[in-house]
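May I ask for a protein sequence together with how it folds?
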Amino acid sequence: MLRRKFWIAFFFLLFLVAISAPVWLRVLGSALIRDDGPAKADIAVVLAGDQWGNRIGKAAELVRAGYVPAVLISGPPFYGEHECDAAIRMAVRRGYPPEYFIPAPNDALSTREEARAMLAELRRRGVHSFLLVTSDYHTARSGRIYRAAEEREGGGPSFRLVAAPDKYFHRDAWWRSRESLKIVFFEWSKTIATAVGM
């Protein structure tokens, strides 16, 4: 009798999880995103790692809309050159003026290393405020990393997170595509690793 009640309860719980899946899957996707929206700032900063050009395109539109005068493009190593150089060439081919962009070559291999490099460059330039532009699924984690990096340095420029759309990630349907599933798996893995100090 006890065993039967256990199995009934187990299958009922499984049923509840299954029918509520769209709700908690959306929550898992939405928790990765923090978009403060644009506002006037000294400069925009584009993080590396977007092979589709959505980040640099979003930042170029911020210049065009008058939020910032220019965009600082992070550039870790990328196939024998710095990613910032390839990204700027692509943006110019898409019709954005080259004077919108400032390359910031660096040797960062993680968002944490990139934060140190880019914040040092912002300090060198005397920047007081910036818009941090990255892929929507990367905003919450990168914001925490940049805030922690500024705290370690005793402060830094104020910033707002601006989310760029990603080709594959859609917060309300990410579980429906293989590429999006990979994005969410890796981003949550990195989020947990960052939280435990790895």
